[in-house]
Amino acid sequence: MAAELPIPVFTSLDQALPDLKTAAAELIRYTNLVDEYTQRFGHKPTYIARAPGRVNLIGEHIDYVLFGAFPAAVERDILIACGPSVSSASPPEPSSPGSVNAHNLDAKYAPQAFAPMLKNAGPTDVEKADADATVHAESAWHLDINTRELRWESYVKAGYYGVLNHFFSQPGQNGHPVPVDLLFTGSVPSGSGLSSSAAMVVASTLAFLAVNEKVNGLTKGKLVEMAMENEKRAGVNSGGLDQAASVICTPHSAIYVTFFPSLAAEPIPLPTPRTTPKAVFVCANSLVVSDKLVSAKYHYNLRVVETLVGARVLARRLGISLTDSERPTFRVILARWLGTDEANFSVEHLKAGIERFLPEVEKLRPAREGHEAGEEGVTMAEMIEWSGLSPEQFNQVYLSWVEVEATYFQLYKRARHVFAEALRVLEFRDVCLRAQDEFVPEDTLAALGALMDASHESCSTLYDCSCPEVDVLVRIAKDAGAYGSRVTGAGWGGCTVSLVAEDKVEEFIGKVKAQYAPYKDLTEEKLREAIFATKPSAGAFILKLDD
Ligand code: GLA
């Protein structure tokens, strides 16, 4: 399985990048980073850690519910040159264990220096948010992360956390973390839905692992788990989609990634029809910056809570018994309703199971007189009543670990999106798999496009995670000839992804540029950053540099 493979460590760039043309172009970027590092820190780096952004082709906002999604890594990435700090003092002065100098090639991100501290810890917020987490009550490493404000070093610290607490939990017995110098550069636009935050956290986690010589024996799956746990420390309760894509993807393929009963990923090559033109994915940035950290309490984290409460209420209406402290997701409720043995549950069974379950979602529909049924949400008081918990228990289980703000909570609409989207992912996977044989059905691209369109409609109207600009961009893309087009990533701004015939890409991009008003005043360079065709790229790796 793809998640069981070791983290790749390469010794030359042409091993790491899929074709020599890409390697040659990237060489300039890597060499520049190494030179700049050497100049700033007075010594050469020992490694470069690299993690790509991702584009999610379909399966939005269902990873934290534990349903599968279908992402691919993009060519845009974060690179970190890293190595142990060398004190310039003579004789060398001891630095505090694990202290960090983090610089960024982009001058708008000021250099940062920080050191972790050992503290006696109770359960952390991350552990409280994870109902299944083992709670560590002993001493733990601590780094101050400001979750109220967007700060670039928060992701670096988040990446460091897991490495410290997994590998140096008993200082003295398992050694001390080494002081580290880091230099970052990145090409994933932030707040664009292409997962710059996961790329930052994955690359940072890798850099700290590499410099502390802890990479040996680690699987990609373990790195995904660490990066997921680490990113939650920055304040968003995201699922594992971004980290899995950034770590596990390989060139030419997307992955069907699932999270239940545990992380698993299946690389699925995208179809290359012979009878119809080949297609590529085009990312277009709406230029509405949507940072999920900043808006978490009205958007992302609110959706996490709505789906969790929805799952409890639905379970009760289906006669599934739950303990008061349980916090199951929709995927778990489906498994209990089906009464299945998850370890031996095929994709075909899952698909049939979702199809049978879909009508049950209606049990969440709030029927109120004078309103169109299902249109409006429920208040906090109604939610608590429907959950069958006391207000104190409800608060403890659903709200004590997260901050959310809403007058009405939309349990029914969110559930409809989740189950239908989970089914669309499986259909998308089927279409791709059918297109691997000699004979590729002629309507393959149209079928994929239709699923993407339906996904966008659902994101926009049921999950309310689009925005007017993104909806306009999707419509323009469709008019410009895309087989399908949709918001990708968390949404509320950011990028769309469109499936476009390869021989029509230039024409397609030209039409979108001309019609999407916010692109009108952009320079050519900014436009190239805003709208671009992308190929599934390599996942994260470490490049070991010569001494
Ligand atoms: C963000 C999160 C992911 C996923 C997507 C929506 O990118 O980090 O875990 O939930 O939103 O699909």
Kindly describe this structure.
This protein is of the alpha+beta class and 547 residues long. The chain has two domains: 2-269 and 537-544, Ribosomal Protein S5, domain 2; 293-413, de novo design (two linked rop proteins) (Up-down Bundle), CATH 1.20.1440. The protein is 39% helix and 16% strand. The protein contains 17 helices and 15 strands. A seven-stranded mixed β-sheet has the order 1-15-2-3-8-4-5, sandwiched between helices. Strands 12-13-11-14 form a four-stranded antiparallel β-sheet. Strands 6-7 form a two-stranded antiparallel sheet. Strand 4 and strand 5 (112-114) form a beta hairpin. Helix 4 (152-167) crosses helix 6, helix 8 (300-317) crosses helix 13 and helix 13 (411-434) packs antiparallel against helix 14 (444-461). The longest helix has 24 residues, at 411-434. It is globular. The two termini are 34 Å apart. Alpha-D-galactopyranose (GLA) binds at residues 56, 60-61, 63-64, 195, 238-239, 241-242, 489-490.
Indicate the topology:
Layout: E1 9-10, H1 13-16, H2 20-41, E2 47-58, E3 70-84, E4 100-104, E5 112-114, E6 117-120, H3 125-129, E7 139-142, H4 152-167, E8 180-186, H5 196-211, H6 220-232, H7 241-248, E9 253-258, E10 264-269, E11 279-285, H8 300-317, H9 330-338, H10 347-357, H11 380-387, H12 391-399, H13 411-434, H14 444-461, H15 468-479, E12 484-487, E13 495-501, H16 505-515, H17 524-530, E14 531-534, E15 541-544
Parallel strand pairs: 1-15, 4-8
Antiparallel strand pairs: 2-3, 2-15, 3-8, 4-5, 6-7, 9-10, 11-13, 11-14, 12-13
Bound molecules: alpha-D-galactopyranose.
The site of alpha-D-galactopyranose (GLA) has 12 residues, from α7.
